[in-house]
Amino acid sequence: MATRSTYSDVLPVRLLQAQTILSSALNTGDVDTRGFESIQVMVDFGDIAEMGASPEGAAQIAVLLEHADDDGTGSAGSYANVAASDVDSDGAHTVSAGVVTMSTSDLAPVRFSYVGDRRFIRVTLTPTGLTSGGPVGVWALKGHAHRTPVS
């Protein structure tokens, strides 16, 4: 039974408007974590025929997470791939060269938390083997705000 509210403590942010992914990579752009101590990312895959319960061929989408320091002007500096120690997940994901997961199943959201010490993150989705593609979107939940309520 839920007896507490996170409404004033967690800020949902749409990082990538739901759109069709087919042959080109999609990128969220800079995500500023300033003012928050935690951030959870969720990649939501819609109905992608090539990534169903029985995938056709080798269709997959790589989910890459990168991070960057502030460049001194309040903008992101050079991005680098995250390491396994920068990501907290359910254990099903292993980080390799910044890739948090290689998703081969649609309709199954992927979620993980960034626990690194850099100010900015970005997520890149890179498809392989898609012929008709389908919808994908990315959201973040920023939590443990320095000031509440969040808006």
Describe the protein's architecture and organization:
The protein has strands spanning 11-21, 26-27, 31-32, 36-45, 60-68, 80-81, 87-88, 99-103, 110-114, 120-128, 134-145. The protein has one domain (11-145): Jelly Rolls (Sandwich). With 151 residues, the protein is mainly β. The chain is built from no helices and eleven strands. Helix content is 0%, strand content 46%.
Helix and strand topology:
Layout: E1 11-21, E2 26-27, E3 31-32, E4 36-45, E5 60-68, E6 80-81, E7 87-88, E8 99-103, E9 110-114, E10 120-128, E11 134-145
Antiparallel strand pairs: 1-11, 2-10, 3-10, 4-9, 4-11, 5-6, 5-8, 5-10, 7-9
Gist?
With 151 residues, this protein is mainly beta.
Key terms for this structure?
151 residues; mainly beta; Jelly Rolls; five-stranded antiparallel β-sheet; 11 strands
